[in-house]
Amino acid sequence: MSTETNSVQKKPPYGMIAILFIGAFVAILNETLLNVALPAIMEEFEVNATAVQWLSTGYMLINGILIPASAYFIQRFSDKKLFITAMLLFTLGTLLASLAPAFSVLLGARMVQAAGSAIMMPLLMNVMLTAFPVEKRGAAMGMFGLVMITAPAIGPTLSGWLIEHYSWRMLFDIVLPIAVITLIFAFIKLKDVTAQRKIKLDFVSLVLSSIGFGGLLYGFSSAGEKGWDSPYVYGTIIIGAIALITFVLRQFRTDEPMLEFRVYKYPMFALSSIISIVISVAMFSSMILLPIYVQTLRGITPLDSGLLMLPGAIVMGIMSPITGKLFDKYGARVLAVIGLSITVVTSYFFSKIDMDTAYSTLVLLYTFRMFGMSMVMMPVMTNGLNQLPAINNPHGTAINNTLQQVSGAIGSALLITVMQNRTKAEAEDLAAKAMANMDASTAQNTAELKQQIMNTAMLHGINFTFIVSTWIAVVALILAFFIKRVKPSYQNQPGEEAVSKEFEAGKD
């Protein structure tokens, strides 16, 4: 690496990182902030559930399309220009959303927001990998984990409280001044840390990537609502898969790939990537199933549902920096094994909940589950990235962030499908038994009986899905035993010397 870069590593630019942190935090927070407000938006703009869901699905799709291209943007443009452009887009989208006179304007504003936020997370992660030496990356990435995990966890609680007291527009009004202040500080304080390269964007790869990742994200995220037999679902998944395979093959044939998939020749990066995918699928079980259980079956309000998850978010926020320091000292394997063991046990206990499970028990189980998760995601991811040469950091971060988006969508779709299928089968079985035992007195309470059957069937569906999630976490636990601590050399890898010279020339 260049002398310039080494000097940056010895004295990390904490002020710059703080600015990037705040920008990334509000961007990720905004991804989940709107979910609780969807019913209020449906009522105001008189749109149906399918249309309003695009406020969340569209945001995720834009992220899935642009994050793979972030490796190119990070290598081609300076940190300052890239962050300011991203923050400008996010701020403009937030302003438009706050003032939106029609649903189409609000949807467009969310797309603009997403275009800005998609670049922030890969940029922040890449700056931190460059700014900190390997032996201090754990603590730094622990702080990064605080942003990545805490922001979406706080979103439902915060939005639930705001919607209960104010208009849904307040969700954008509170984010806007933070975005503007961050933008001002970025103009004044931001500096360039990472090296730039004069590379060209392969537009064919960009199109294939957009169709591939976009198709998979749309297909899997729509499966729960439209059903797997819908041509919109299986059609977009097939098209996305074909485009993605073509995209990957093209990256191996081009001299300057948009995403360098050769990073998978590094065994610890490949292993960390697989574990992260499995964990993302398992993590979504509690984030999806628990709100369904507490709101639909138990009649708990959305605000109380969000508050149930708040202690878990706080624990993750507290643990992320601590976990980072423990990673620097002990490595990823011991943390991942302990964390995933906790995740397996708590997932199993969630499969035993019933209609009488105390609210406090649910809070404790969810909090302990998040405590376990906090010891896994960032240490595993950081250990994998540590094995990559610096020139491949943008590609590693882009691949990790993209796979999290895709695996999150796939995990959500699969778990919802498992729950729905199990619920349907259980309801049919219970209905058949009820009909066989029905007499004249029970026949008068058919509506009440049907509701009772559906509630019982859904509870069985949720319990069964948590069992599936438990076994998914067991797979991740087994893989965690194969993690090895990596200590890459600081020597330039092939191609890095040229990058360093270009970086130095640019500085002069």
From TrEMBL:
GO annotation, cellular component aspect: plasma membrane
Membrane-topology annotation of the record: Multi-pass membrane protein
This protein's name: DHA2 family efflux MFS transporter permease subunit
Keyword Plastid in annotation: no
Residues in Major facilitator superfamily (MFS) profile domain copies: 16-488
Record bears the keyword Cell membrane: yes
Entry keywords, A to Z: Cell membrane, Membrane, Transmembrane, Transmembrane helix, Transport
PANTHER family xrefs: MAJOR FACILITATOR SUPERFAMILY MULTIDRUG TRANSPORTER MFSC
Protein's cellular compartments: Cell membrane
Gene3D superfamilies: MFS general substrate transporter like domains, Multidrug resistance protein D
Gene Ontology terms, MF aspect: transmembrane transporter activity
Organism: Niallia taxi
PROSITE patterns: MFS
InterPro entries from the UniProt entry: EmrB-like, MFS, MFS_dom, MFS_trans_sf
Primary subcellular site in the record, as a coarse category: membrane
Transmembrane segments: 12-34, 54-74, 86-108, 114-132, 144-163, 169-188, 200-220, 232-249, 269-294, 306-327, 334-351, 357-378, 462-483
NCBIfam families, per the entry: efflux_EmrB (TIGR00711)
Family: Belongs to the major facilitator superfamily. EmrB family.
